[in-house]
Amino acid sequence: MPSLHHHPLDPHSRFIRLVLNEIGLDVDLVEEKPWEREERFLHLNPAGLLPVLVEDGGLVVPGVSAIAEYLDEAHGAGLGEHRLLSLDTATRVETRRLADWFLTKFHAEVSDYLVTEKILKRFMPEDAGGGAPDTSAIRAAKTNVRYHLRYLGYLARRRNWLAGDRLSYADLAAAAQLSVVDYLGDVPWAEDDTAKDWYARIKSRPSFRPLLNEMVRGTTPSSTYANLDF
């Protein structure tokens, strides 16, 4: 069986897990602590970043974008109308644009700060950046998430799904990022009902259930995290 090297609260790993669940591919989950920079893991991805997919035949696919493209190339044609990266050129462009928005911009401005400062620093050694949380980084992330939520609501009001008529990589990328912020209770859902309704719709999908059942040691998820009617 293929294996996915991941961390439970890494939103990029969560995105690929959602994709795998949507297309019906089973994998063995191998939890990694990328800050430890183990030689074994660096052989898989010298960049030291998650996630990494390893196929049965030994093919190593490192990094979130490479894995997403690989999965579409290898399995997309067999999904028909449920393909997560549309065959329509304009829709593909928009899907990639929005997926990159959430995987890169949202991650850099919101989820990476919150997960690192609130959770990961507790487990990281000091020489790898561990220690007390940076409260200024947390405040910045809590401010930034409001603007991203507003943009998400704008997209959801204009379309059935974020990039068009069908569920796509854009929705799964956005939901993966929001899921870790929601775990920490830092999404101001009351500020945009459309964004909230979109998220409730996507986290009610079977592909989301494994994520909602996970907990990180020492950190209790927010009351909205696993609640489908929040």
From TrEMBL:
<dbReference type="Pfam" id="PF00043">
    <property type="entry name" value="GST_C"/>
</dbReference>
<dbReference type="InterPro" id="IPR004046">
    <property type="entry name" value="GST_C"/>
</dbReference>
<dbReference type="InterPro" id="IPR036282">
    <property type="entry name" value="Glutathione-S-Trfase_C_sf"/>
</dbReference>
<protein>
    <submittedName>
        <fullName>Glutathione S-transferase</fullName>
        <ecNumber>2.5.1.18</ecNumber>
    </submittedName>
</protein>
<dbReference type="Pfam" id="PF13409">
    <property type="entry name" value="GST_N_2"/>
</dbReference>
<dbReference type="InterPro" id="IPR036249">
    <property type="entry name" value="Thioredoxin-like_sf"/>
</dbReference>
<keyword id="KW-0808">Transferase</keyword>
<dbReference type="InterPro" id="IPR010987">
    <property type="entry name" value="Glutathione-S-Trfase_C-like"/>
</dbReference>
<feature type="domain" description="GST C-terminal">
    <location>
        <begin position="88"/>
        <end position="222"/>
    </location>
</feature>
<feature type="domain" description="GST N-terminal">
    <location>
        <begin position="1"/>
        <end position="79"/>
    </location>
</feature>
<dbReference type="InterPro" id="IPR040079">
    <property type="entry name" value="Glutathione_S-Trfase"/>
</dbReference>
<dbReference type="InterPro" id="IPR004045">
    <property type="entry name" value="Glutathione_S-Trfase_N"/>
</dbReference>
<dbReference type="GO" id="GO:0004364">
    <property type="term" value="F:glutathione transferase activity"/>
</dbReference>
<comment type="subunit">
    <text>Homodimer.</text>
</comment>
